[in-house]
Structures are given as structure tokens and as C-alpha cells.
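Side project, low priority. Logging it here so it doesn't get lost.
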Amino acid sequence: MTSVFCHTRSVPPFWIATDGVAEPLAPPPAPTIEVCYRHPTVQTRVHCTRCGRPICPDCMIQAPVGFQCPECVEDARKEFRRGPGRALRGGLSATKAIVVAIVAMYAVEVIVGGPGSLLQGPDSRTLFDLGAMQPLAIADGQFWRLFSAMFLHAGLLHLGFNLYALWLFGRVIEDELGRAWFLVIYFVSGLLASVASYAFGPVTALAVGASGAIFGIFGAFIAFNWRRRHTPLGRANLRTAGTLLLLNLILAVGYRSIDWRAHVGGLVAGLAVTAVADGLGRGRNGRLLQVACVGGMIALGIAITVWRTDAIRSLPQFQAIFGV
């Protein structure tokens, strides 16, 4: 009887025999290190239960199940305000109120200018008397024209385009940011649009229209979606905004009657105010920063107006008209 002994040798756990040949096993994947999407230097393993993005302890907000990020909590509040919350608050939307005010002012233009002004708008003298933006008159102290011009229009087509754009973008911004911020964006943008036209346009110009303020609302639309460019809807809205900007650039080059300075001033103001409204957070400190930033923008508009007024008053045209 012959004894046969089997010789065995231990094999490390990361090796496996295949057809008599030992091959290495792939090592386990290294654990993924995630960081908070709002604080890129903070590591975390917690995810928002609504959007799935990683959030750190400073960004966690207790939800019925798990934690949610600040953006999702704010979106939920806005959804409530648009739905059952709106029914609780009641009241007329700011977008509709401004549309009604502009239409009412155009009715005044037609009444004062006569039936022939329905399509083409009243003549320049009538528009001036009703409050059109005119640099020489503003330099004489009629600063209220920087606001009154926002409610005047030079014809039915001019009125229709502006009201359509206001209705299209105004409702979105009012729903997303609220009535108060919509009004702040609209009037601050309108003011800075008029200031841009006053400061950098010809002194003989006569300007009317809500387009500067509406470009501010359009700027708000861009800024709002830029912060949400990680979402499919945000990217789609930004592509739409880019197409509209290109179209307006072509129109501004083709039609010299378009006050592109006011459009640029309103757009920049809308972008800036919305960055403040939507990006500085909540709480008392956030609100103080928002008020300070908006106040600083208004102060900048006032400073530019003072500078331009002093420059216009030294012109021969101004001295000849007003006897200074």
C-alpha cells in the first residue's frame, strides 16, 4: 500500500486559481469621498432626501423623513405659496397691477393725444408733457421723469411687446421670489435703466417705455436659473434666455430708435438684485446684507445722476434753454 500525501499552500485572499494559474483579484473600490454641494471643503455622507445632493451639518434641515438642503426647503415653501399659500394670502399679483397701470396710462395718452394716437401713440410734445424721460429737463430738476417714463409708450406695438414680455417673465419671478422682491427688482431696474439712458445717451433724446424695467425682470430670470443650472429646467431656461438676448442684440443694431443703454442698465440691475435676493441666504444677517446691497445700488444710481446733471448743466444747450 502506497501512501499519497497532498501538499497544500495557503493563498493570499486577493489571489484566485483559474485553470491551475493563480490570478490576482481586483481590490475593492476605494470609498467615495463626497463633499457638501454648498461647502466644497466639507466632507459628508448625508444626502438631501429630496434632491439627493450631499449636504453638511450646517446645511441640514430636519424634514419629516431625513434631512433636506436649504434650496429644496425654499422650493417647497414657494410651492406652498403658489398653491394653498396663495389662497391664504389673497390679493392682486404685482405683475397684474403693473400691467393694469401701464394700460391705464396708455389710455390717458390716447385721450390726451386724440383718437389718431391709438396706434402710433401721441406726438413728442404730448409724451413730454406726460412725463417722458428727457435729459435736459431732468438736469433742470425734473428727476421724477426717471420713473414716470416707465409707464409711457410710443404706440400700440411698443405697448404690446412690452406687456407680453412683462407677463411672460414677471409671473415667473413673482412666483419664485415673491411679490416684494418682484417689485424691488422691477423698480430698481427701471430706475437704473433710466439712469443709464440719462447718463450715456444724447441730451436731446426723448425716451419712454417699460422695457428697461422689463429687462431687469429678464435679468432676474437669468440669474435665478443660473443658480439652478444643474437642473434640466434651469439649463433649458438659460438656453431660451441666450436666444432672446441674441435676438434683442440684433434688433438693437437694426433699429436706432431702441434705447439699448436703458436695456443694458436694466439687465445688469436685474441680475445684481436677484443675485442678492436669491443668493445671500435667510435670517437676520442675510436680510441686512440684502437691504445694504439694494441700497448701495440705488445710491450708485443717484451718484451717476448727480454726476450727469452737473455735466449737462455746463452744456451750451442747457444754458441757452434755461437761461443759466
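Brief comment: DSSP finds 14 helices and six strands in the chain.
Revisit when time allows.
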